[in-house]
Amino acid sequence: MYNAQPSLDEAEARFVDPYPLLLLFARQYGVYLLHAHCNLAEEEKMVASGNINQPELAPNGSPFEYRREPVPTPPIELVTAFADIVGMNGPLGLFYAGDLKDGEVILERTEGRVNITTSVSAENQPLEGFVETGWLPDGTDNFVKMACVISCDALTTRSGNYHKGTRSHS
Fold first, then answer.
1. Using alpha carbons only, how large is the chain's radius of gyration in Å?
2. Which of 41, 55, 138, 148 has its CA 20 to 30 A from that of 61?
3. Would 170 be classed as within a structural domain?
């Protein structure tokens, strides 16, 4: 299922305005643009631990992407309303806001097949060069809570550039 996720460019092109959904359960869950940064082997899952998200061998039956740390399950009312608004196979998913503080934004970057997130002050971090990927109302005009940098992971050789197999392009 992870490999079926669109690239960041493809997901952004299929974007649906999340504002009505954000108001349903403000402050606990936000809307996230589902996208893949690399391809996974059949036996791999994308596993998040802390601020690192990377492929690992995982037991059958586990979701294509999951966290080692437990997070609350979204209320069924939210999941149902979410599916009614955006459908089940669209480019949007839900994320648990957890410890995200007002005025913070989570920036995601990819190094090889590892995704690394960093929380920074939205006021001090211009988002030029980043694609908005997560939204959550926080009482300000800044709904953006997550953003990914798009860059092509290539190795320059004597015969030209060799793409390293990631799916994030500029």
1. 16
2. 148
3. no
Which residues, including other chains, have CB under 8 Å from residue 162's CB and lie 6 or more apart? Answer: 154, 155, 156
Nearest to 147 by CA among 6, 27, 8: 8
Question: What is the number of domains present in the chain?
Answer: 1
**Residue 82: domain span:** 2-163
Tokens of 162: 């060799």
pLDDT, tens digit (0-9, with 9 covering 90-100), for 103-117 = 788 888 888 889 888
Which one, of 170, 169, 168, 167, lies nearest residue 3 by Cα? 167
Q: Share the mean pLDDT of the chain.
A: 74
Do residues 156 and 116 touch, judged by C-beta distance below 8 A?
no
Quote the pLDDT of residue 52. Answer: 92
Which pLDDT belongs to residue 64?
67
Q: Per the structure block, which two tokens stand in for 67? A: 């966290």
> CB–CB of 148/118 below 8 Å?
no
